[in-house]
């Protein structure tokens, strides 16, 4: 009878340990902080859009879900979104001022792909660098 009891206690303890490991090590991961990550690529907005229009699969393998630094001219500002050189849509966590319109800026964000309908590259979690 004691052996069965110890076996049950050991099995329950093992399940608790495995559950804690899965929750902390596999299932629960903190969100990425793009502002603190180092950019994997640095390029101009015109270059990024041209690469996506020429070869989307290769561009996706290079840039998709990676932190990239992009330089370009702000062509449109709307609340927390801005557009660089009419080809890159960038979303920020805070509202952007209209005074940035027409200026050359550098920003960092996570590439989430190319919108074929709008023909623009999408970046999210963006932060201004200069």
UniProtKB/TrEMBL annotation:
Which residue ranges does UniProt annotate as crossing the membrane?
6-23
Question: What protein name does the entry list?
Answer: tRNA_anti-like
> What UniProt keywords are attached to this protein's entry?
Membrane, Transmembrane, Transmembrane helix
Q: Which InterPro entries match?
A: Protein_unknown_function_OB (IPR024422)
Work out whether the entry's keyword set contains Transmembrane helix. Answer: yes
């Amino acid at each position: 009878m004691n052996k069965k009891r110890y076996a049950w206690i050991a099995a329950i303890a093992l399940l608790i340990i495995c559950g804690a490991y899965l929750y902390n090590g596999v299932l629960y991961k903190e969100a990425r902080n793009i502002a603190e990550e180092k950019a994997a690529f640095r390029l101009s907005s015109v270059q990024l859009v041209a690469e996506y229009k020429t070869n989307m699969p290769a561009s996706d393998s290079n840039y998709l879900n990676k932190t990239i630094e992009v330089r370009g001219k702000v062509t449109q500002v709307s609340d927390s979104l801005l557009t660089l050189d009419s080809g890159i849509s960038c979303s920020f966590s805070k509202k952007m001022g209209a005074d940035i319109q027409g200026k050359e800026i550098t920003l960092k964000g996570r590439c989430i792909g190319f919108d074929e309908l709008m023909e623009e590259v999408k970046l999210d979690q963006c932060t201004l660098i200069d």
